[in-house]
Amino acid sequence: MKIAVLLSGGVDSSVALYRIINKGYTNIKCYYLKIWLEDELSYIGNCPWQEDLNYVEAVCNKFNVPYEIINFQKEYYNKVVSYTIEELKNGNTPSPDIFCNQRIKFGAFFDKINEQYDLVVTGHYAKIQSKEKKFFLKQAKDKIKDQSYFLSHISQKQMSKLCFPLGTLLKSEVRQIAKSINLPNKDRKDSQGICFLGKIKYNEFIKYHLGEKKGNIIEKETGKIIGTHNGYWFFTVGQRKGIKLSNGPWFVVEKDLEKNIIYISHNENYLKQAKRKFLVNEIHWINDKPSDFENFKIKIRHGEKKYSCKLKLIENNLIEISLNTKDHGISPGQFAIFYKNTACLGGAKIFKIIE
């Protein structure tokens, strides 16, 4: 069996490689996908791709496995970054990591290797189960690290080639394995933030592409101007950090794109404005469309929390979702990801908040 392993330089993908080797597989080649935007944004800060590569090389040397670097910066810009910029321009909250998996790691990379490998191994925290020639995406044992949210848009064809060796492990167990076999990156911290930014700050990325434009910050309840901002695209509904006003905490509750206004509410008023009903479209089912929408739960952001909800099919590509509990941070552009028990069924894009 020929196996490709995607190595990032982090501890997770390195332990995934070790677990595959430990099962006796020998025909293995590792790949590092270069998607950082360091060439374009080098003036902002140092991207860690060279540091990544040092760890990739050290890990591959340890296990005597060959590796190759593939540059996907152009593909990444066209398929993920351009989407992110457009969503920000439209006042939405993008989820680029969902499309990083669908379009690059298991899209452009699969196209590049073109059936050379029987299996592609990554360090994602999730499980894939097969039954009657169909593949099912399941949550990982570690519910905090679980990445099914970001994997919700992959296809049956992609899943047929994928293997996630960390799906049955807790993060603490992964760290323990890394230390027990003395991996070169055993103490390396987990990466944070959006996959293509590295050490570049998100706001610097936004500023580079969309610039700055002064606008007013207005208290929703009183209509009083209480500050200014540099562009609505720097803010998302539910945001608390970065507002930089005294007497907080303040939260973003609404945006007026035409007038470039950010509306905020103080904590006590913000808590009263939670929402529970919204519409989603651009629906993606990992398997066939369910015959019924009973006993669904959803996540509206990456993390452990799921909501019980009611789903109502309005038309083929439009679903109304009613949460059993209100949420304060529902924003157009976010993705609602569907679950039944531990199975991730797919997801859809939030495009309108109702009440």
List keywords for this structure.
355 residues, alpha/beta, 6-stranded antiparallel beta barrel, 5-stranded parallel sheet, 29% strand
Can you tell me about this structure?
The protein has 355 residues and is of the alpha/beta class. It contains eight helices and 17 strands. The protein has helices spanning 11-22, 49-63, 73-89, 96-113, 156-159, 171-180, 202-210, 267-270, and strands at residues 3-6, 28-34, 67-71, 119-121, 127-131, 134-138, 162-163, 215-219, 225-229, 250-256, 261-266, 275-285, 297-299, 307-315, 318-327, 335-340, 343-353. A six-stranded antiparallel β-barrel has the order 12-15-14-13-16-17. Strands 3-2-1-4-7 form a five-stranded parallel sheet, covered by helices on one side. Strand 2, helix 2 (49-63) and strand 3 form a beta-alpha-beta unit. Helix 1 packs across helix 6 (171-180) and helix 3 (73-89) runs antiparallel to helix 4. It is globular, with a radius of gyration of 21 Å. It starts with a strand and ends with a strand.
Kindly summarize this structure in a few lines.
With 355 residues, the protein is α/β, with parallel strands linked by helices. The protein has helices at residues 11-22, 49-63, 73-89, 96-113, 156-159, 171-180, 202-210, 267-270; strands at residues 3-6, 28-34, 67-71, 119-121, 127-131, 134-138, 162-163, 215-219, 225-229, 250-256, 261-266, 275-285, 297-299, 307-315, 318-327, 335-340, 343-353. It starts with a strand and ends with a strand.
Largest sheet: 6 strands, antiparallel, barrel
Number of strands: 17
- The coarse silhouette is globular
Low-confidence stretches: none
SSE pattern, N- to C-terminal: EHEHEHHEEEHEHHEEEEHEEEEEE
- Our Rg estimate from Cα atoms comes to 21 Å
Q: Percent of residues in helical segments?
A: 25-40%
**What is the typical, i.e. mean, pLDDT?**
91
β content, as a range?
25-35%
Cα distance spanning the termini: 53 Å
Query: Which structural class best describes the helix and strand composition?
Result: alpha/beta
